[in-house]
Amino acid sequence: MAKILNLFAHRQTAAPANLAPVGAAAAALLDGFSIEVMPRTAEKIEDFRTLLPADTRVYIAHIDGTPIEDMVATAKRIRAEGFPVMPHFPARIIRDRAMLGDWIARYQGEAGVDQALLLAGGLDAPKGDFSDSMQLIETGLFDEAGFKRLHVAGHPEGNRDIDPDGSGVRAMQALRWKADFASRTDAEMAIATQFCFEAAPVIEWADMLRAEGVALPIHIGVAGPAKLQTLIRFALACGVGPSLRVLQRRASDVTKLMTPFTPEKFLTDLAEHTAAHPGFNITNVHFFPLGGITRTAEFTGVFGGSRPLAATG
What InterPro entries does the annotation carry (predicted)? Predict the structure, then answer.
């Protein structure tokens, strides 16, 4: 996920796409979607209330090198506009327990934050005492601070940083550990995943988690509308697996090379599977606005049906 964010930091300039309504098949799945921003991309949005439905959860990605002051200021601003915010806590850029405690205190005291996405962070080597999200959890600091919601990262198509051999064994062990922790805590927990482009591998992965006893809700990562070339570049850099073939097939059609790719088929397939399988563990959608926040927000409004935006007064 960290590789996604490092590339994402250089985007967010695209204009809104011209999207035709495609029906309400995925309205239930899109209800309660979340979206990812960073301090410097959030600065380009005058008021999030003009773009997002009320109470949309806004993740704030922490790229290595971003001052904590900028992160907290962004959280405070977006909270003031009425949105719950979920800042990233990348373990490998947090030096020690004292720094982690300071971040938690700043977010809580200055911005009223009570939820966090915990992840390793993707650096080749830790900058301090922490190398993974489990170590952050084990400090007990989030529990002591009364954080109500903790999300952890998931990788439906594998992660070579975690499992260099591609087996997925270590990733599954980590998710089992987190699911066990969730059963022993009052915090609400969920898995927020890397983006994918094809429903079948995602459904297979979600079913595998359930079979392995990992019953955490899954917030599936979805790439927002963007140029095909942009998405292919992100996908290759971030290790997207089998679902990359969706983009490769589209790239072979020269008539589609210059038109934005939108994720309606992926979402429709997931929505249809969810409707046919009550209790399916993919419960929410999390958007990576790789082609721009405005473009992604417009897509959710068209694809998910008409929803009122928060008041702007």
Answer: FAD-linked_oxidoreductase-like
- Helix then strand then coil, in percent of the chain rounded to 5, is 40, 15, 40
Instruction: Check if the beta carbon of residue 192 is closer than 8 Å to that of residue 286.
Output: yes
Give the separation between CA 173 and CA 138, rounded to whole angstroms: 16
What is the tens place of the pLDDT at every residue in 261-289? 788 889 999 999 998 898 999 999 999 99
Residue 235's contacts (CB-CB under 8 Å, 6 or more residues apart) are 197, 244, 247
**195 contacts 240 by C-beta, under 8 angstroms:** yes
2-16+24-301 to CATH, choices 3.40.190.290, 1.10.287.110, 3.40.190.10, 3.20.20.220? 3.20.20.220
The continuous run of DSSP H or E covering 116 comes out as: strand 115-119
- Per-residue pLDDT, averaged over 83-92, amounts to 98
Under a CB-based contact definition with an 8 Å cutoff, are residues 261 and 247 in contact?
A: yes
pLDDT tens-digit map of 292-303 = 999 999 988 876
Give the model confidence (pLDDT) of 153-181 as tens digits: 998 876 666 756 666 788 899 999 999 99
Q: Say how many C-beta atoms besides its own lie within 10 A of residue 251's C-beta.
A: 15
Q: What is the pTM of this model?
A: 0.84
Q: Where are the domains of the chain?
A: 2-16+24-301
